[in-house]
Amino acid sequence: MNFYSEALKIKDRLIHWRREFHMYPELGYEEKRTSAIIKKKLEENGIEYVETAHTGICALIKGNGDKTVGIRADMDALPLMDNKNCNYASKVEGKMHACGHDAHTAILMGAALVLNNFKHSLNGNVKLFFEPAEETTGGAKIMIEEGVLENPHVDAIIGLHVDENIPCGKVGIKRGVVNAASNPFTIKILGKGAHGARPQDSVDPIYIASSIVMNLQSIISRELSPVEPAVITIGTIHGGTAQNIIPEEVTISGIIRTMKAEHREYVVKRFKDIIEGITDSLRGKCIVQVDESYPCLYNDESMYNLFINTSLKLLKEEKVIELLNPSMGVESFAYFSNERPSVFYYLGVRNEEKGITNPAHSSLFDIDEDSLSLGVALHCQLVQSYLDTE
């Protein structure tokens, strides 16, 4: 089966869908319009589905046999102005598909159409996961809790993300750990307010907060190996109302990113130890909240090898880039990769001749839409290859 030629046949529809989503972006758990378009196309092609995770969708294409592979796409946009000068720029004030989820959704819709046309030749089933709220809390977690990986049981999962650093026509993949885990945090330092001229009457929470900010970095620089990445980012510090007043409290927020489960546990523990120790030694009190957010995203070794072998059926060897470094960013596909053997790859969308070079999460982000057909073909080829393996 030449899936690439089949994907090229629907190229115009892929571009139309992608631009439709791009013009009318929706934030996490608001994707009602997007979901309605997807459900209409599924119904038109006789593909059964259920609603999940508020605005998410889980669809099923039944082939021959019990083996089942899933494909996931995220649907939500970002709270960002679209400053592109093109006829498909966002028409919704303050909202934009600046991370390519419009393309991901269009690609999965295209893969659904192609695979459904050839379902009688598939040695198993295909589940389609349209995930909401990837940019915030991750709809994947709710989808899994609501049972999308069962009935029928999903054996493996495929996902992709567009990448503006990889030229259109090429793909990238990372062995092992692909994305970091994250732990957002909030620290409230409680002291005693006083006049700025009489610091002896105070317990200065700004001084305590400053000591905490500096000492937290010792976890990364002196307690973890320098060849194993981890990051503690302080994003906000709020406290005080005037130059001559020592305030009563300061609030700090930020995020921890780690690449290993054991590092995640260790850093969180030491994080709390250091904050509590400094605060106590400087006569203050603290309230520390560390949230469990996205886990690490792992590419299963067998699925990684499947991708390499399968992609070379569609692309020349130099078009398949083996990435050396993981991303410190997070990705909610990680929830799926922690439940089933998975592969997550990057689809090149950069085209310098067309001026498509702007970074994701920026107001000028765009993609080379020639990439859409390749994404569909790779999804379909991976599905067939996986279902054909013993």
From TrEMBL:
Transmembrane segments: none annotated. Residues 185-276 form the Peptidase M20 dimerisation domain. It comes from the Bacteria. Pfam families: M20_dimer, Peptidase_M20. This is Amidohydrolase. It comes from Clostridium mobile.
